[in-house]
Every structure is written in C-alpha cells, then in structure tokens.
Amino acid sequence: MLKKRIIAVVIVKDDIVIQSIGFRKYLPIGKPEITLEFLTSWGIDEIVYLDISATKDQKLPNYEMIRRAAKKCYVPLTVGGGIRQMDQVHELMSAGADKVSLNQIAWNEISFVKEVALAYGNQCVVASVDVLKTSNGYKVYDYTKKQATGMDPTDYAKKLADYGAGEIFINSVDRDGTYLGYDLDLIQSVTNSVHIPVICCGGARNAADMVQVFSKTNVSAAAAANFFHFTEHSVNVSKSIVYKNENIRLETHANYSENTFDSDMRLTKKDDKILEEMLFLRIEKETI
Length: 288
Prior knowledge:
Elements: E1 5-13, E2 16-21, E3 25-30, H1 32-41, E4 46-51, H2 63-70, E5 77-80, H3 86-95, E6 99-102, H4 104-108, H5 111-120, E7 125-134, E8 137-142, E9 147-148, H6 153-162, E10 167-172, H7 184-193, E11 198-201, H8 207-216, E12 221-224, H9 234-243, H10 272-278
Parallel strand pairs: 1-4, 1-12, 4-5, 5-6, 6-7, 7-10, 10-11, 11-12
Antiparallel strand pairs: 1-2, 2-3, 7-8, 8-9
Helix pairs in contact: 1-2, 2-3, 6-7, 8-9
C-alpha cells in the first residue's frame, strides 16, 4: 500500500516567501532557502515551490534563487511559476527541481503538458488547478485575471491526465488562508474523476484536517503552506498525529510519537518525572 504524503507549499512573491490569504492578501515570511532548509530538516515528504508573481508579471523563473534553495532541500522539489517554454523547464531541472508545476501554461496551451511529459516522464509533471466555488458549482479559477472560468474542475483534471500529467494539485481558492479545513466535496470529486494521484491544498488549520481528508477522500497527499511556517517542528508534530491514523513516513528523531495533544492539536506537557529523565538522554545530531 502506497504511503500518504504530507507536502509543504512554499509560496513566493517577489523572491520572498509569503503567507497567502484568499489569493488577495499576502504577509511576508522570509527567504526561500531558509524555509526549505527548515522544512527538510523537520521531515516533510515533499515541497512545492510556487512563484506567484513570475507569470503575472511576465518574469522568468528566478533560477539562481531556486538553485540556492534546492541546495538546502533533500526531498522531492516541485517548482512552478513563470514557466512558458521548454527551455525554462530544462533550466529548472538543472537548477534542482525534481518536478514542475504547470498552471497558466497548461490552461492556455494544454499540449505543453504532453511536451514536458514526453521529455521528462509523467511523474515530473504536476498540473496545478485553482478552483473557486460559485453559485453554479465549482469552477476552475484564473488567478491572473482573478476570476472564475466556465470550466468544471473534474472535466479539466481528466483532460490534464489524458495529456500526460502525473499528478493533479488541486487548490481551493475559497479555503486559502481561512483555516476552515479542506474542501472535501471538491477533493473527492476530483479524485474520483482521474486515475493519477491528487494533492489537495487550501484551508488546513492543523493535522486534524489532514487526518480528516485522508479518511474521507481518496487523495494521495495533503498539502499546506501557512501553518507550517509559524511553529517550530510543526511538520514533525503534524506527521506524528497523522501517523496514528494513516500510513505515512515518520523517520525523524523528534517524531512525537509518544506525545499527547489537546483539541487544537498542540502538544500537551509531559509529566515532570518524564521530563527530568529526559535531561540525561543523549541525542545524536540528525542527518537528513
């Protein structure tokens, strides 16, 4: 049985990692290379690096930035933003990307998905689909125009899979930065429509939302951005909670597997006697 994955999304705007709220409000976090180093050391399964300003501002991907960040990353790295030509895909792969995320280019020129898949294999193509819930149901969202299209996301996901996408990255615009949890109806409808893995994103507040989406949908990976940035070892804590319910990788020394958590998924204090005993434990520096 394939293990479920926990993925961190690093959203970059003007070369700074940011927190996104509803695709409209952005708060600065820090440097991409530092963010990737922390997420890697905390045991994340994969990282999706999305430059949201590159396509909108007609800029090239910042290859040097990605090259520096990739040196700090020892897990599969997907890079998206600003991709319009095959030579850019080649350069991103040379800079350290393991996969590319195709959003606007796939929407405007879906044959490009097949071109990348033929060059690098389906497993290297992650088709990114932003979705907005409207009065007429779920619709694919064009973030450059800030409006919904008339396309149903399940139909679009099928088309992307037929053209060679290896994975679908489904992102709920409505839930982005809200901490209201994943949109289960949207996610299940997309997973039911395709035969390839689906990554869900948008709305996760804590690990409880990941447990829920894994238990109630057929999604292959749960992704989150904002809440991973604000608590040290947030990845380890989240994965230890999910691990109790799902088959995921949990290999870091600090795995919190024997800890308990409150209703907000925060660590509860260990007994004083246990804490005293831990003072004399020798823990070797971990190498990822």
